[in-house]
């Protein structure tokens, strides 16, 4: 029995779409390149990323393989919708966060990377952080 079509994207569709976009950007793939790897049009990738089209489970499995992400990545930290955690405003989906993580892992000197991590952690916990300009 087929499920009735949802006329509008659900919060979960949008969340999964944002995760697809984030993983694609981290993989340094364009929508065209990802579409070619999946055998779909780039417009289909756009619809997945916007959450306007639901991604079926087999496509999501294929995406996880192509993007080298665990399948569970697309649903990580998802809790029940009534707890409002499915917001597309999630900090993990922001470009600045993606760039920070991507650049952090590009640091080949892991000792230096750890020191930078410690500086950021200390700054976030510092009293000076509480002052807003």
Overview of this protein structure:
By secondary structure, this protein is mainly α. The relative contact order is 0.12.
Task: Please count the helical segments.
Answer: 6
Q: pLDDT under 50 segments (min length 5)?
A: 83-88
Number of domains: 2
What structural class results from the helix and strand content? mainly alpha
Second rung of CATH, namely the architecture of the largest domain? Orthogonal Bundle
Order of secondary-structure elements: HHHHHH
Percent strand equals: under 5%
Termini Cα gap:
58 Å
Query: What is the CATH superfamily label of the largest domain?
Result: lambda repressor-like DNA-binding domains
Largest sheet: none
Top CATH class of the largest domain: Mainly Alpha
CATH topology category name of the largest domain: 434 Repressor (Amino-terminal Domain)
How confident is the prediction overall: mean pLDDT?
A: 83
**Estimated helix fraction:** 40-55%
């Amino acid at each position: 029995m087929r499920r009735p079509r949802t006329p509008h994207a659900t919060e979960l569709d949008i969340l999964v779409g944002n995760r697809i976009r984030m993983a694609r950007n981290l993989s340094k793939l364009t929508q065209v390149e990802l579409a070619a790897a999946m055998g779909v049009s780039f417009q289909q990738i756009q619809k997945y990323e916007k959450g306007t089209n639901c991604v079926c489970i087999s496509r999501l499995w294929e995406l996880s393989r192509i993007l080298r992400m665990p399948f569970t990545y697309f649903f990580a930290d998802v809790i029940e919708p009534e707890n409002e955690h499915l917001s597309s405003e999630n900090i993990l989906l922001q470009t600045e966060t993606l760039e920070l993580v991507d650049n952090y892992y590009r640091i080949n000197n892991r000792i230096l990377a750890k020191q930078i991590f410690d500086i950021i952690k200390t700054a976030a916990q510092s009293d000076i952080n509480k002052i807003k300009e």
